[in-house]
Amino acid sequence: MVRGRQRRKSSSPSEPVVRIIAGGWRRRRLRVPPPELCRPMKDRTREALFSILAPVVPGSYAVDLFAGSGAVALEALSRGAVGATLIEAHPQVLAVLRQNVEQLTGAEALCRIVSGDALALGSRLDYPRQRPWLVFFCPPYALFGERQAELMGLVGWFARHAPRESTLVVEAPQEFPPEALPRGLAWQRRSYPPAELFLGEVGG
User: Fold this and answer.
1) pTM over 0.85
2) Cα separations (Å) of 16 from 29, 55, 84?
3) Of 53, 86, 174, 182, which residue is 20 to 30 A from 106 by alpha carbon distance?
4) What is the DSSP letter of 57?
């Protein structure tokens, strides 16, 4: 009996996805939490950021402090980072993050997923010190108004404690004043409206 072709399952419009851009998991799809719970970095911004970071990603250890879907840390792992800590506070977002990690071959062995407030936990966790860190600060933009002092305090902690040649990446809204960034690092600024990216090398 000849059977009719089955229709391919399509993603629901209510379940948007992003794709890993390059590396071992290139083009793999990641689920994205509802927009009211998570603000993922735009694909073009992520692509531009990792073009800049290309020389330092391989062999680094990624720290994604406001992980959301995990797209940023998983992009780093796909491109050669050796491990990652991902911190996420919201239970529903955390569930999506875990699903994204579980569906990538080998990712679970590379990822430490931590449930909780990154502003409280980020400086209390242990991170491997034998490799440079690649630290991502991509919080909800509201934190730049509501908890900016705490956020910049955490950036400052990583600037002081990360191994030499580590790189810090802060994604901020366009109205964020660069002078609020901790002193001691030579911050580079890149504009990808509506985001501003600030990159600082520790010991550089």
Assistant:
1) yes
2) 10, 31, 24
3) 53
4) S
